[in-house]
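Q: A reviewer asked whether we had any structural model of the full assembly, not just the individual parts. We don't, so I'm hoping you can provide one. Inputs are below.
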Amino acid sequence: MTTAPYKGFNMSVIVKCEHLTKSYGDLIAVNDVSFRVEEGEIFGLVGPNGAGKTTLIEMIEGLRTPDSGLIKALGLDPTKQGDELKERIGVLLQTTSIQPDIKVKEALRLFASFYQRAPDNAEELLHTLSLEDKADSRFKKLSGGLKQRVAIALALVNDPEILFLDELTTGLDPQARRNMWDLVETMRTQGKTIFLTTHYMEEAEKLCDRVGIIDYGKIIALDTPRNLVNNLSAESKVTFNIEDKDVATSKFELVGAVSRVEKVEDGIILYTRDGNVTLQELVRLADKQKFRLSNLRTESPSLDDVFLTLTGREMRE
Ligand SMILES: Nc1ncnc2c1ncn2[C@@H]1O[C@H](COP(=O)(O)OP(=O)(O)O)[C@@H](O)[C@H]1O
Ligand SMILES: [Mg+2]
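A: Here is a predicted structure for the entire assembly that you could use as a starting point for your response.
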């Protein structure tokens, strides 16, 4: 969970979208979307592949033009003040095309030359991204995780106020992914607003202060991960095994807060509105009726469950 300085809703709006729509032929990729991003937060758009995340983020970056609606980023209209906006934002595209033979420090110099005012911060960026010993390496020689870190360094050469990260960790191994999360937190403590997209619910849940869930071009929910999970009354699960395999599952239906009982291959699952109540009553019942519970565990609802509740579909690919 994020612990850093997200202060709530008394900050200033840094990105504002109103009734944003974009189609490709008959396909409505982004459909009447409105939301705001506050200064200093880590905001995430999460949704399955094809949901419209890249289209949406690239309209805000000024790279794609909306059919209708209004965008303000840093007070600027990306469709009319794109050049001005570009100077003040950092962009990690979903697919980075960096010349394979270029050395890391050359790439930094090249990208810095794209900006009118780029601070001379190459050393510092190499340090922040733990790339010091890669300065003279050629891009093509780097691992996926390192390539992604270089791409972020390049997005930071102009010391941007907002950092846009499209599918930051797609294709990275779990360790590299966690490193990226740490890095994003570091960026935020340095005062940057982060706007990211991901199709990993877990990533959105761990990293983001607020999450917009997008599906078929619409934002279907937007809140802190905690509120999303609480308000959509997704259920917790209490799972356990009992020695007597033939025990009737019906006896568990009356355990406090339980809404549904499921018998699965490796045990019994109680779906519950209140994991603590269910746990206490289950233990008491076992004690009274003299059966032994083993492997007892509770699972809190996650954003995956929220997506399922909202759409009736699993989020997983
Ligand atoms: N340039 C394009 N031309 C035509 N269709 C596109 C284009 N870009 C995206 N799409 C379509 O728009 C929908 C949303 O795509 P995209 O914004 O890339 O979603 P996401 O980033 O969530 O995967 C998809 O159905 C995709 O195939
Ligand atoms: Mg995308």
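A: Points you may want to mention in the reply: DSSP finds ten helices and 13 strands in the chain. The pocket of magnesium ion (ligand 2) is lined by residues 53-54, 94, 166-167 (CB under 6 Å).
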